[in-house]
Amino acid sequence: MNEEKINGFSGDERLQSGIQLREGYDSEFWIGELKVSCAMDNVTLTDNYVSGKQSKGNGFEISFDSDRMYLKFDFDKFWSLSKINSSRSITDELNRVLLDIGIVVEDWSRFLIEQASFNRKIELNRSELAYFRNLLHYFRFRNAATFDPEGSYSIHNNAFRYVFTSIATDSNPILHIKLEILDGLHLKEMLKPDLDFYDLTVEDARQILNLHLRKFRKVCASLIVDTGWYVISEYAHYLRDLKADSLIKNLELQQSLIPEFNGMDFESFFKQNFGVSFQNTKTAVSNWLKLTELIKDDLQVMEKFISRTGSTYGELLQKFEVYSLEARKLF
What we know:
By secondary structure, the chain is of the alpha+beta class. The relative contact order is 0.11. About 45% of the residues lie in helices and about 20% in strands. A hairpin with a 4-residue loop joins strand 8 and strand 9 (about 150-155). The strands form three sheets. The chain has a nine-stranded antiparallel β-sheet with strand order 1-4-5-2-7-11-10-9-8. Strands 3-6 form a two-stranded antiparallel sheet. The protein has helices at about 10-15, 75-85, 90-100, 125-140, 185-190, 200-225, 225-235, 235-240, 245-255, 265-275, 280-320, 325-330; strands at about 1-5, 30-40, 45, 60-65, 70-75, 105, 110-125, 145, 150-155, 160-165, 175-180, 260, 265. The chain has twelve helices and 13 strands. The longest helix has about 40 residues, at about 280-320.
């Protein structure tokens, strides 16, 4: 594939400032880099076209294969330009830059979205950031996350990727969350049928971000708290009333009710039916019951600790979601 990079940009300007709330929402979030494509019969290369020619402003990356043209650009930047030039649309701004390098697009509605990124900035206190970094360290320890020299953690799924980067500030640190949708079909499933890329809205971005942040929260919950602790929690009220001696005596009663069976003594009967020695099993179970009675208070304290840890992370990760101001009033 032939590639031509024309004044590429990444939207870093947003990452150099503090939180700028989006109107009507409780957060700063935006649509980042978009990659779209169309068939070559939808494109005309004029006499002014020169391979590798630089645009004078607001560049992007163009690539070709034998059948299609691929265009990668910063959606947020072109959306902002269209708002400044209120008489222009995003496609007007794209046309202006493409014409400057000798490319004419016949019909923008024929473009398909190949990839997209959605971004969110959130201010955390230093304690919250330390908690989250510990979680990312654990993902990395399990080989579920990678860490790059620039200080970003990436967690990859086949269809999408999360990238988390902390940004130092004079006050509280800022966490930049980047969701990269790597599969156009995955993105299409979340959008209205036949939605064109230039009609994407901030509300589309909010819903896509929240959907994937909830998925991330569920993954984290399963890592932080083993499901076995939920079993212990469900039976905690039984453990509070556990009396080992009473249960052992009841076990001995069961034994006495079957003195023999078809001429066999009880031990032989038990071993034939269950494959193990009754006395050995009784000793093991009795020891377990006595130990459980001794440590039941400790188990309950540990269960409360683990539950609180899960809640702490759950509340932190829920803060990552984006809400409209109207929805926030309901909290």
